[in-house]
Amino acid sequence: MKLDPRLAVLLTPDRQSVLFATKGVIAMALALYLSMLLQLDRPYWALISAVFLQVRPETGLVIEKGFCQIGGTLVGGAMGLLILAWLLPYPALAIGALTLWIGLNAGASAWVRQANFIYGFAMAGITATLIVVLAIADPANTSSLGIFHIANARVSEIVLGAVCATLVSSLLWPVRVSGLLKEHARTALNQTLAYLELELDPSGTHAKRHNQVDALLQGIFALSDDSSAVHYEGSHGPGRARAATVICHKTLSLVARIRVIGRLMRNHDELLTPALRDLLDALRAAFQRMRETPSAEQAMKEAQALRQQLREARGEQAEDAPPLQRRFFQVSQNLTSDLILALEANRALHFSHEVQLRPQGLRPYRDLQIASAVGLRSALVFALAAGLWVGTASPMAIMLMIMPVMFTILFARLPEPDQVLKRATFSSVLAAPVALFFTLPLLALNNGNFPLLILILGAPLFVGLLAISKRLTLPLGLGFCTPYIILVQPGNAMDFDVARVASNGLAITVGIAIAFLMFRLITPPNGPNLRRRLIRQTATDLTLMGNPSAATSGAANINEEWFNARMADRLRWLTICDKALPEAQRHFTDLGLTGLNLGQVSLWIQSRLRSNAPPALLDSADRWQLALAAAYQACSRGTVDEGFRQQSERLKLDMDDAGNLAQRDRELIAGALERIALTFERMAFRLTEAQQSRGVAA
Predict the structure, then answer these.
(1) b/e for 100-121, b at 16 or more Cβ within 10 A?
(2) Does the reported pTM lie above 0.90?
(3) How confident is the model at residue 463 (pLDDT cuts 50, 70, 90)?
(4) Residue ranges of the chain that CATH labels 1.20.120
(5) In angstroms, rounded to a whole number, what is the distance separating the alpha carbons of residues 39 and 496?
(6) Residue 175 DSSP class
(7) Which of 8, 46, 464, 684 shows the greatest Cβ crowding within 10 Å of its Cβ?
């Protein structure tokens, strides 16, 4: 009988999981020993700090998270002291200020993508909470010196745990981020090749293409998010980070270019010439061979052979070949060049070669409404817990104000945060019985023997760390380890109070359950307003393409990488919006990918038009770019903007009059203009059909 995958993580762990759990126990033992040696008030916060740093075991990620944790702790400590300095005589106002501070940090965390930076914001909120709430809860110790002592102790405990975890991660069985990036790069490239092949597969469905795009975007963001931490792993780190960023950019470019060819094949079969059909067959066969080969070097050889084949086929075109055919041969060559650059960057990632390109990293999509939803959720959880604390004056209510709030910030960026918290709630229920019936009775028999303390305390933690080592069981591990440490509270003066453990265990479980309900109650916006903002901002970026005055308006260096960096997270949000809709109405991912391609095509067109162009052609190019952005927004509403075709025809006439373009370039641009017009008409038709079907269903 085959074990459940979650049980297999605990009962038949692999070597990597065992080493991860061993390192975690060593880091916590070191943090606890030093905390007790330094006579810190609450050594268990050093253990919790070490647990969170060990969630991602790669050395660079641990170092980066350590910096984020220390920075967030110091900022949160300073804010806690500031709140107490001004509002200690007014506890209600102090709690209100703390609620606002937590909401601001939670909202700000929604504007970054890297989990380590999100953790830094969470620590800024939680550290301030620990300082302010514990000071208010102990009125006898609210002198300036007492408050400073509380703040110093909390900051010292958290920083000590971060330092211990970082040292253990760096010195004992270190795992490098560079190895993780290689895995991410391989996954992203394989997903890209699978998508390229699927786009050219006549039997491929719309749902399959959407699922593949979703998986591909997840691979790109995993590579992009983790690449920042490789800077901490030696002199080759920055070069590897640039190589990872190049792979992300070129993958996005490949997705945009292949859709042009795929849409023509699926929707305009009558426009396919024999040469274009041969082109499609050659591309499909080459992508399949590259995806199936186990060697990156062999994939590179296949890509180079494909580029040579396309170059020869392009040169053999008839003199009277249609402009659309010429344009698609150009697109195919550009696509192959992007694929070769992505494979070159992958080679640089593996062999530490220097990457000459300096693309900017992918930018997170920053939306005020999304940030407000995340901030409001965390603030409400804290305010509800604070209200229970004020109303009941129960010390156990303090537990409601800490871990649940942290989880609402840390899990907000995950695809299904409510399900993650549901699993964390389940495992938190187990923490109290383990602490009550196993750990505390055995520790009560221990008379100051530190190795025995670690042996007893570490056994359940080792099991919890095994769960944390795998993504499938990570919520279960976190949901057990953090409440377990808080309930046992190891230190110099343990009280073994059964009533305290039971009440705190109940409070933590109830708090996580409240956080779960808040995720169900306050969901991230994914409705029509968000979709409209995403499309509108894409259209705004399209108006900047080729505009020479854009550099003076704060949008300098407008190029393909600039546009890809801004579009990547928008695409992710559009896929989230699509998942909230019925299958027949999921067209917004297509709209986002269309916008990505329009940006690249318009950059290419503008670069050709503006070469030694007279003022009349420059003015016509600017008007055409504005018409393109307007037509894109119109097709997102299910309408066709006839002004775009009219402006395209005027642009072609102005090109002929200007005389600065070769005949071949004019034909390529004419083919691109025709293809864009067909795209707008097709998208508008599909959206109109979806709106009509929705109206009939209603």
Answers:
(1) ebbbbbbbbbbbbbbbbbbbbb
(2) no
(3) very high
(4) 177-232+237-351
(5) 19
(6) B
(7) 46
